[in-house]
Amino acid sequence: MQRPCGTFDETYGQDTAVVRTKPQWGLVIAGLIWLLTVPLYGGDYVLGLINHISILIIAVLGLQITTGYCGLVSFGQAAFMAVGAYTSAILTLNGVPFWLALPLAGLAAGLIGLIGGAPSLRVKGFYLALATLAVHYVIMYLIMHLSITGATAGLHPPPPKIGNFVFSSDKTMFYIIVPLMLLMTYFAKNLARTKLGRAFVAIRDNDLAAKVMGINLYYYKLLAFFIGCFFAGIAGSLLGHWWQVVAPEQFTIVQSLIYVGMIIVGGLGSVAGVFFGVISLRLLDEVVFLAAPALSAAFPTLAMDIAAPLSGVVFGLVIILFLIFEPRGLAHRWEIFKTSYRLYPFSY
Amino acid sequence: MTELLQYVVTGLMTGGLYAMVGLSIVLVYKATEVVSLAHGELLGFGALFFWLFFVALGLPLWLSILVMLACSALLGLIIERFAMRPLIGQSLFSAFFMTVAIYLMLDGIFALILKGGAVGWPAFLPAGNIYPGGIRISLSSLATLGICLSLFGILAAFFKYTKIGLGMRATAEDHQLSQSAGINVKWVFLAIWAISAMAAAIAGVSAGNVMGVHYYLPFFILMKGLVAALFGGLDSIPGVLLGGLILGAVESIAAGYLAPIVGGGVQEVAAFVFLLVILIVRPHGLFGLARIERI
Questions:
Q1: Under a CB-based contact definition with an 8 Å cutoff, are residues B31 and B192 in contact?
Q2: pLDDT tens digits for A172-224?
Q3: Which of residues 21-40 of A touch B (CB under 8 A)?
Q4: Which terminus of chain B has a smaller tally of CB atoms within 10 A, N or C?
Q5: Is B2-281 in CATH node 1.10.3470?
Q6: What does the DSSP assignment read for B211-232?
Q7: Residues 19 to 48 of B: which have CB under 8 A from any A CB?
Q8: Of A112, A313, A328, which to mutate for an interface test with B (greatest number of B Cβ within 10 Å)?
Q9: Is B87 exposed, middle or buried (0-12, 13-18, 19+ CB in 10 A)?
């Protein structure tokens, strides 16, 4: 990282720190205080939006670990979310408390992810992407045809509770979802800096070379799938208990494609990129949904419900533009911006 | 026995459809090394164009087919020139995801045009069934198989006997070598996208003829076409024909024998289980080249 002239690292701790300077600490703390006090003045609409963005961030962080760090393209993230959501719904409906069902949902999704990621041992690139697409299809087929998952009708998991206190509103769920999102972000950010993260990056850059260097490909590729799907399972479980409904149409293949699109817009292989990608695309989606009624009033010849197809069009267009003009994503722009303001009066 | 034969024959008819979509994907893959999901929507738009000219504008059949092919080719050219060309030299994942993005965008437009419903599809092929040897064959499906086989025949002849076709085969082998041999690789890419868009559009019209044009048609056929292409080997044209036909037969047999046991929709998932088995057992497909990787 480039820093102003005269700023040196004197200890190993300083050299590896994520948050380095006092102003950065100030910003982090101020940001956290702001985020955690939003429920005091924000309405249900804002809180709902933040909750949804946080859940998406958890799911896409998992995908970033599998796809962005380890280079294993997965088009099945939504199905792994579904596994988590259904596991925790079935467990809580049978009397298991939410607090135990949540990690179990992550584990279940991770274990299914090991099966779903098994083709990665044989194939990569497009072939793997299509294999995970097939896994998505098979998982959703099973969910829609088994009796334990309530088939197409879905399930209604109860909201989480402590004692007599029930987390049933957007405001109360906010205090479960957002801290978990922060915890998962902390985990993902640090994962990338450990031996594990470096092994993932080596596999992404060239898996044969990584193998030659002594990285156990089978172990690390499956581990990448396990961790990515664990995140998806947690996100799915939170989504189910927040909406109090779990149904197959929440987890479509288009959702999986959109998650991959989010890491492309944000930037592959960067935790900050997940935040940029999810927040910008989710807000864009919100704008489309708000503008859709006005548009259908202006063009009555179009279909009645134009919001869903229109968001597909806008989303596709955004991805196309990003791939052509900024394939490294918003995170790369952010790095450029940070470097230039640190060196402000000078160009380099 | 008759029952089994019936399932196989019905499956082969549908398989022709999958083979055509698979063909359009294989054509692009051979020339540009990109697996394209955009062809799913090129298929849907082919059917829409045909409907527009034949039903909405009332043009004669031969003219509407020609105009439909021209419009689809134009769409393919636009996609190549403005979306795929800028990505030459970037990672294949970017190019692959570009086709996904194009798919999502065209899918939205497709849904807007269809308004969530289906278009009334004209019956321009002979309807009815024939019963040779106690097996029911619907004439429209038979026509689909005929269209599929003649499409493969025309393209095989095109690649084998024309100079342009030879240039395209050379480009598929090595971009730089063929460029230094005087082949205009950019032009070949454009031509391949136009040809494959037309192949997809023909598949779309045939699909509309057999199962009607509705919102889920492009996705449904696209997935089957991908499975067919992967099964045959992504870079083999005879492979995709065989792959499509076998996939159709497998699906039909699964629907016939498994659906009474495990419930409906099993033929959908059968194709994907089949795909997973292929990918794990033989990743390069039946006739595809196994690539040897070097560091």
A1: yes
A2: 888 889 999 999 999 999 998 899 999 999 999 888 899 999 999 999 999 99
A3: none
A4: N
A5: yes
A6: H-EETTHHHHHHHHHHHHHHHH
A7: 35
A8: A313
A9: buried
Beta bridge partners of A166: A161
Select the residue of B262, B280, B293 nearest A122 (Cβ to Cβ): B280
Percent of chain A beyond pLDDT 90?
47
User: Taking the C-alpha atoms of B184, B186, B191 and B197 in order, what is their torsion angle to the nearest 10 degrees?
Assistant: 160
For residue range A250-308, what is the model confidence (pLDDT) as tens digits?
898 889 999 999 999 998 888 999 999 999 999 998 998 888 777 777 766 655 567 77
CATH 1.10.3470 fits A42-342, yes or no: yes
Compute CA distances A147 → A120, A196, B81, B158, whole Å: 30, 39, 49, 53
Domain boundaries, chain B: 2-281
CA of A145 vs chain B CAs: smallest distance (Å): 8
**Position A343 pLDDT exceeds 80:** no
Give me the residue spans of the domains in chain A.
Answer: 42-342
* Structure tokens that stand for B119 in this block: 């278009």
Q: 3-class DSSP state for residue B138? A: strand
The verdict on A141 touching B (C-beta cutoff 8 Å) is yes
The answer to whether the CB atoms of A316 and B265 lie below 8 A apart is no
A309 touches chain B (CB under 8 A): yes
Question: Model's pTM, two decimal places?
Answer: 0.90
**Cβ proximity of A221 and A120 under 8 Å:** yes
Using only C-alpha atoms, chain B has a radius of gyration, in whole angstroms, of 19
Q: Name every chain A residue with its beta carbon within 8 A of the beta carbon of B283.
A: 122-123, 127
